Amino acid sequence: MIGRVGLAAAAVAILVLSGADGSMAQQGGPFAPRLFVNDKAITNYEMDQRIQFLRLLGNPPDIEKVALDGLIDDRLRLDEAERLGITVSDEQLKEGMEEFAARGDLDVDQFVVLIGQAGVSEESFRDFVKSGLAWREVVRAKYGPRTQVTDAEIDRAVQSAAGGGPAATAGTQVLLSEIVLRADTPDYRRDALALARQLSGSIDSADAFAAAARKYSVSRSRDQGGRMGWMPLSKLPPSVAGQVLALGPGKVSEPIEMDNAIVLFQLRSIREDRAEGPKTAAVDYAKFIIPGGTLAQAMKVRMRADTCDDLYGVARGLPPERLVRETRQVADLPPDVAQELAKLDDNEVSYALGNARAAVVLMLCGRTPDLGEDGAIDREAVRRQLFGQRLAGYADSYLAELKADAIIREP
Fold first, then answer.
1. Rounded Cα–Cα distance for residues 165 and 24 (Å)
2. Which of 6, 237, 248, 331 is the most buried (most CB within 10 A)?
3. Helices 90-102 and 122-143: crossing angle, nearest 10°?
4. Cβ(344)–Cβ(364) under 8 Å?
5. At what angle do helices 90-102 and 2-12 cross, to 10 degrees?
6. 286-302 per-position pLDDT tens digit
7. Torsions phi, psi for 280 (to 5 deg)
């Protein structure tokens, strides 16, 4: 139950917990600094508290990496809120804590007792919630006034979600170009963000975007100037779809943060396709991982596997972590995985998730359609959803910029 609490509440609070590098050995006493973020310390105590808290919220892999990067992000969020003069009132904090606890069918007192049994203090819980609330207000203040959702965009969203039967309406498809910049190390990420911001602000034509894609992109689409084929909008990750909908033809998105890449999109065209099926609710996919492998090795795996089920034969006798197969809701997919799956049909593969540490064969096994429910469409709910998706995309890029500009150092 608590695992679901963490995932749901983290999404509501826009708390992004992404990985950092390396295991962390404690040095000094509990209140000795573990790391400095713009000269503000993260202590060993805070690190230990966050690790214990994450164990309650689902015990993610590489938990020390997740904990430290989450604390770094929290420092950056709170620093930016302080810089902008944004504060979280006691009433807002109380409501945020109540909402978090209620997702586990608990009140705040019960939740505090529960985490206390695991050694997590109420203060650590308050800090966790406060960071998310402050960041939400920061993003709304910076991007809210210019984030508008038009009636036409609501129409397209409703049409994209419609499915099956004579009442089905048109779906939205987009024609995009992409520039994918390598960002699988801190140095590459810093340089990629700087380049992406420069390109986003300077590219003013399709030809200029294509030239930049050929020069800088590491995607397989680089030889086509970054051009991709028509793609249903419903296949894109929600935060990416929100940014794409905000673009006019020929316009370039702000840099979009992925696990191992920074991505720019240019919208070339948009159309309604009455033949499109229902919106995808979940996807079944597989990742075959080759540590230290090359693209050639990944392609050999593909030659031995026509379907996802064939990958089990390829993986026979190998460590179980070499083959990962799972079914996940579209909204819960990692952004880089979602982006690649959006390009694939059943049993097609992508090699784009590979990096210097491993080659990866990503195969789409199948999609589960969301047939929707009968009844009237709540257009205001659709508007709020699109607004939230768009803000989430802006928030990711905003935090990535803050991290790229921050001075993060060990004592």
1. 55
2. 237
3. 110
4. yes
5. 140
6. 999 999 988 888 888 88
7. -80, 130
From the CA atom positions of the chain, what is the Rg in Å?
22
Which tokens go with 201?
């602000």
* 158 close to 377: Cβ distance less than 8 angstroms: yes
Question: For the chain, give me the number of helices (H) and strands (E)?
Answer: 14, 11
In the numeric block, which tokens belong to residue 165? Answer: 């039967």
Q: Structure pTM?
A: 0.49
Cβ-in-10-Å burial (0-12, 13-18, 19+) of 168 comes to middle
3-state class of 247 per DSSP? coil
Neighbour count for residue 405 (Cβ, 10 Å):
12
Two tokens, residue 331: 């909204």
Q: Which two tokens stand for residue 252?
A: 């370039």
Q: Are 299 and 203 in contact (CB under 8 A)?
A: no
102 alpha carbon, distance to own chain's centre: 25
Eight-state DSSP code of residue 146: G
Tokens of 88: 């979280």
Determine what percent of the chain is predicted with pLDDT higher than 70: 80
Can you tell me which residue has the tokens 């203090």?
121
| Residues 263 and 400: beta-carbon distance below 8 Å | no
Helix spans in 59-185 (H): 63-83, 90-102, 108-117, 122-143, 151-161
Cβ–Cβ < 8 Å for 159, 147: no
Q: Which residues contact 330 (CB under 8 A, 6 or more apart)?
A: 237, 238, 280, 281, 282, 283, 338
More confident residue, 370 or 260: 260
Whether 161 has a pLDDT exceeding 80, the answer reads no
